[in-house]
Amino acid sequence: MQHNFEPDVSQLEKNILPENWEWIRCSKQAKMARYKSDPVCYFKEFIPKSQLEVIKSKFRGSRCEIWVEQAKVAMNAGFDVPEILAYGILQNKHHYLITASGPDGAASDYLIKKPDNNETKRQQWIKAFGEYIGQMHKAGIVHGDLRAGNILMEPSSPPHFVMIDIERNSHHKIVPLSLVRKNLVQLIKRISFKDFTAKDRVLFFKHYNQSYNRFDKKDQKKLAIEVINLVKKQNLWGGNQNI
């Protein structure tokens, strides 16, 4: 039987932690908590950035409503997202969402170089991750904040990926080149060469293109140069940002 979240939501809205819940650090545009009992799940309150966002949401939907809509798009295209357990509107007019837990780790935990990551498996996971992002773009899905930390991963063989933080996702018949570049920049600018080498990046890009099957060799090279230049322009080439 599913847990009744209504009393918990009422308390969480008032910044009171119900039994078996704990707060999670997140951006200023949200409030998050984790339910530690069975089933493990996550509460997210979407806090508008400004009054302008509130006005815009009346026409295009709130971030929560977009999350739910984009979850359907992703699942219809064969991609996994955390199961939606509940969503609605709080007394303060903010929207909230409760989702089931996905895999324990993020893709970034397994793709970067570190002592407890088996190198042979890591290379296989990089290939699979490149193929996953290629398939995502082939399906017309653009992740609004595509960093490896926003893709959960089960380190199985083959690995199982689950996309999270999808409230800024968009769906297109053909992904505009500007958004292809944007997603690749989001991935590359947040990780250092110490954690993810040039060889790793080439391997990812090779399997991304094989999976996407959109660009010929000339356009692949052009795309890679454009992405590198955009990252350099932001002074984040080889940066050590949160991935």
UniProtKB/TrEMBL annotation:
PROSITE patterns: PROTEIN_KINASE_TYR. Transmembrane segments: none annotated. Pfam families: Kdo. Gene3D superfamilies: Transferase(Phosphotransferase) domain 1. One of its GO terms (molecular function) is protein kinase activity. InterPro entries: Kinase-like_dom_sf (IPR011009), Tyr_kinase_AS (IPR008266). This is Protein kinase domain-containing protein. It comes from Endozoicomonas numazuensis.
